[in-house]
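Narrative summary of target 7.
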Amino acid sequence: MKQAAGHGLLFMVLFFLLPIGSLSSDHHRHKSSFRRVLIGHDSDKYAVIFDAGSTGSRVHVFRFDQNQDLLPIGNELELYVSTKPGLSSYAADPQAAASSLRPLLEEAEAVVPIWLQPDTPARLGATAGLRLVEGDAAEKILDAVRNLFKNESHLKYKHDWVSILDGVQEGTYMWVTINYLLNTLGRSYAETVATIDLGGASVQMAYAISDENAAKAPHVAANETYLLQKNLKGTNYNLYVHSYLKYGSKAARAEIFKASRNSTNPCILEGYEGTYTYGGVVYRVSAPRKGANMKRCQILTRKALKINAPCKYDSCTFNGIWNGGGGDGEKNLYLSSSFYWTALDSGILKQNATGGRILVNAYKDTAKTACSTKFMDVKSKFPDVQEENIPYLCMDLVYIYTLLVDGLGELKFLLILPEEIINYTNTA
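Modeled conformation, tokenized:
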């Protein structure tokens, strides 16, 4: 069953719970350490993780034996339940936000034995959707969720187990997770892989860089950073991480509509007229008389990405952001979240695919077909696209291609979708 975009963020939440310094150099002990920290202590049997993304909220329940090895829940490795919209959609009503999690909480408690619930931790990590909420609305939502967990649940709860992950955390945890799964942690930085995670509200890029490039890292504001020093499995890494807020798959649509100044948009399929709402703002959505035009859509997307913004450093990605200098740590690239879901929607990957290797031009070639298709004909050419994404199929494909090639540094080499993560998260 196709799951909500952003489901890969589960792994960021898992590593949010894991002190990175606890990683062992022994693979078997490493697995046990990971699981033991996740569930709290050896007597725990279950763990309940809420992933509060920008497009929706999900709950994952894991079951462990006394050796901290995963056990099935029913016929699956985990219980997975999701709901839409995300918490940020309830900015004006914190109680409604918390209430949206109640069905997920009830489903989770239904599979955790009553006698184990007091020792089963329930934790929630929110991502860019709540980071974008203005004023104190996000904190009010978190407080409402804390009250829900405290007053309506028998699961183990602590105040600071409900929190918002910042963009650097998101990028770091995804990089650590994928390299953990690939068993590349502890090797030289050149043997690790780079990660780009395209969520609904933000996109994160992370990869290990050389000492030489690390020495060139620019000095930025006190509350910002491009570079983290990490010791993982006995190896020191210079980790370049950056999170681009407002450039996730759903937020980018809004940025492209802003760039078109509310006029007809060359990224919209012929025959469609409507509205798009994001962050409480309603955008007019209408196609030009002759329909979508891929080249004009690319020009508009480059404008939204601010490709031509001044670069104060040796080299930049988009909007004047330092790119880390490149190097061997960037040569093998793993993509996740909306990169995967858009590939499924558009037929780049077959519906039963749990991942795969593709060339970046696959997004471009598919965009050519999508942009030349009328709105009413989309389902005949792209039978797997979800209904809510039909008007934006051309836009989404062009955005991904432009983001990868023009925005993040001409990433034209072979791209790899993370099979290990997608296998793991497709168990529901």
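The radius of gyration is 21 Å.
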